[in-house]
Design goal:
The protein contains 14 helices and no strands. It is 85% helix and 0% strand. The chain has 440 residues and is an all-alpha fold. Helix 5 packs parallel to helix 7 and helix 9 packs antiparallel against helix 10.
Length: 440
C-alpha cells in the first residue's frame, strides 16, 4: 500500500518505511552472493575470480539503472507529496519510455565492447573466457535490471517499501536454488550461475512492473495523464544524469582499482572478490536506506514541510549506525570464516586478502553510512551539485591512494584507500549540509 511520509513522527515514519527497504536489499544482494558462493564452492577459485572480475563491469550498467531509479523516485515522490497525481503518472510513463531506449543502447554497446572492457582491466587469461561468458549473459538481462529498478523507485516514491520485499524474498531464494541446480545437476559452470540470475531477475521484474501499473490504476486523477512529457523528462534527467554520472564514476573507479588488483594474480583477485561482495552488501544497504531518506525528503518538500527534513536525517543516521554495529563485529571477528563461505579449499593468499580487507574497511562503516544518509537528503532536495562534489572527491581519493599505497605497501595498501576516501566525503557533506536551509 502507498504511504504518506509527510505525517506522523519522523523517526517512526522513516524507520517503518526503511526497515523493509533494508530487508529488500539483503535479499537483492543474495543474487550476487549466491553467484559467488556457488562459483567458489562448486566450480572453483578461478570461477569465483571470474565472477568477481566481471562484477566490477556489471556495476557500470547497474549505475545507469540506479540513476534512473533515483531520478524517477525523487520526481514521483515530489509530485505524490504535492498531490499532483496526473503529472505523477506521466512521470512514470516518461521514465519507462526513456529508460527503454537507454537500455537498448547499453545492451548493443556492451555486447560489442565486452572483450575490450575485460582487456582494459587486465583480466588474467585463465579467467578471461568465463568472465566474458558471465558478462554476455548479464548484458542480455539488462532490461530486467532496468525496469525492476524503476519499479522499486516508484514503490519507494509512493511510500511502499513492503511490496518489493515480497518480490525479492521469492526471487532471491529461487535464484539460490537455480544456481545450485544449474551448476551441480546440469554442470553448466559459470554459465549456469549467470543464467540462473537472468531467469530469476526476469520473473521478478515482470511481477514488479505489473504491480506498479496496478497501483497506479487505483490512484484517481481529474485529468487523463499524458503518455510522455518533455518537461518532466527534463526534470527526470536533471536528477538521473548526475546520479548516473556519480554511480558510473564509482564503477569506473572500481574498475581502475580492479585493474590494480588484477596485477597481483588470481589468489588476490579471489580473496578480494569474496571480501568485496560482503562489503558491497553493507554499502548497498546504506545506499538503499539513503534512497529511502531521499523519498522521505522529496515527499516532505513537495508538501511544503521543510522542517521535517532535518528530523528525518537524524532518524536516518541513528538507523544506519544501529545497523552498522552487527556488521562491524561480524566482519572483524568472523572474516576468515565468511571467506570460507565463498571459496572451497582456498589458498592462504585468498584468505589473507579477504580478512585484511574486512579488518581495514569495516570499522569505518559509521563514517560511510552517515555520508550516504546526507547524500539522501541532497538527492531528495535536488541539491545534486553538493552530492556530486562530495561523492566524486571520495572516489578520486580512493583511486589515487589505491595506486600510491599499493606501490608503497603492496595489495594491503589498496584496501587502506577506502577509509580515507569515505572520511573525506563525509567531511565535505557535513560542510555542505550546514549551508542549507531546510527549516527548523
Amino acid at each position: 500500500m502507498n504511504k504518506d511520509l509527510t505525517v506522523g513522527k519522523p523517526e517512526t515514519v522513516l524507520w517503518k518505511f526503511c526497515m523493509p527497504l533494508f530487508a529488500s536489499i539483503i535479499f537483492q544482494q543474495l543474487y550476487n552472493l549466491a553467484d559467488s558462493f556457488v562459483a567458489g564452492k562448486f566450480i572453483g577459485e578461478e570461477a569465483l575470480a571470474a565472477v568477481g572480475n566481471s562484477y566490477e563491469i556489471t556495476l557500470i550498467y547497474l549505475a545507469f539503472a540506479v540513476g534512473c531509479n533515483i531520478g524517477c523516485s525523487v520526481v514521483v515522490a515530489r509530485l505524490f507529496g504535492a498531490k499532483q497525481f496526473a503529472d505523477m503518472k506521466t512521470a512514470v510513463y516518461t521514465t519507462m519510455i526513456s529508460c527503454g531506449v537507454l537500455c537498448l543502447v547499453l545492451m548493443t554497446s556492451g555486447l560489442v565492447l565486452c572483450n575490450a572492457m575485460l582487456q582494459l582491466i587486465h583480466t588474467p587469461q585463465n579467467i578471461f573466457a568465463d568472465s566474458k561468458l558471465y558478462m554476455d549473459i548479464y548484458i542480455l538481462g539488462l532490461p530486467f535490471v532496468f525496469f525492476y529498478n524503476i519499479a522499486t523507485g516508484i514503490f519507494s516514491a509512493l511510500g511502499n517499501s513492503k511490496t518489493p520485499l515480497v518480490f525479492l524474498a521469492v526471487s532471491s531464494t529461487s535464484n539460490i536454488v537455480a544456481d545450485v541446480v544449474f551448476v551441480t545437476v546440469f554442470d553448466m559452470g559459470v554459465a549456469g550461475v549467470a543464467w540462473a540470475t537472468f531467469i530469476c531477475q526476469g520473473l521478478s521484474c515482470v511481477a514488479a512492473v505489473f504491480t506498479v501499473f496496478r497501483h497506479l490504476q487505483r490512484i484517481k486523477t481529474d485529468i487523463k495523464p499524458k503518455a510522455y512529457s518533455w518537461q518532466l523528462q527534463k526534470k527526470l534527467a536533471a536528477m538521473a544524469v548526475p546520479s548516473i554520472l556519480q554511480q558510473s564514476s564509482i564503477s569506473v573507479g572500481n574498475i581502475i582499482i580492479q585493474g590494480i588488483i588484477n596485477t597481483y594474480g588470481s589468489g588476490v583477485i579471489a580473496g578480494y572478490a569474496a571480501a568485496v561482495k560482503l562489503n558491497n552488501l553493507v554499502i548497498t544497504s546504506y545506499t538503499t536506506l539513503g534512497n529511502g531518506i531521499s523519498s522521505y525528503t522529496a515527499q516532505n518538500i513537495g508538501a511544503g514541510k521543510l522542517h521535517r527534513v532535518p528530523q528525518g536525517l537524524k532518524a536516518g543516521i541513528k538507523l544506519v549506525w544501529t545497523l552498522s554495529v552487527p556488521f562491524i563485529l561480524l566482519y572483524c571477528f568472523g572474516g576468515r570464516h565468511l571467506a570460507y563461505f565463498f571459496i572451497n579449499n582456498p589458498t592462504e593468499t585468498a584468505l589473507t586478502v579477504a580478512v585484511q580487507f574486512l579488518l581495514i574497511v569495516a570499522p569505518f562503516y559509521p563514517v560511510v553510512s552517515a555520508k550516504m544518509s546526507i547524500d539522501g537528503v541532497f538527492r531528495g532536495s535536488e541539491r545534486m551539485r553538493q552530492f556530486l562534489v562530495a561523492t566524486t572527491t571520495d572516489l578520486l581519493v580512493r583511486v589515487v591512494l589505491a595506486k600510491v599505497f599499493s606501490d608503497m605497501f603492496g595489495a594491503i595498501g589498496i584496501w587502506c584507500a577506502w577509509p580515507v576516501g569515505w572520511t573525506t566525503g563525509l567531511v565535505l557533506n557535513i560542510l555542505f549540509y550546514r549551508k542549507q536551509k531546510y527549516g527548523k
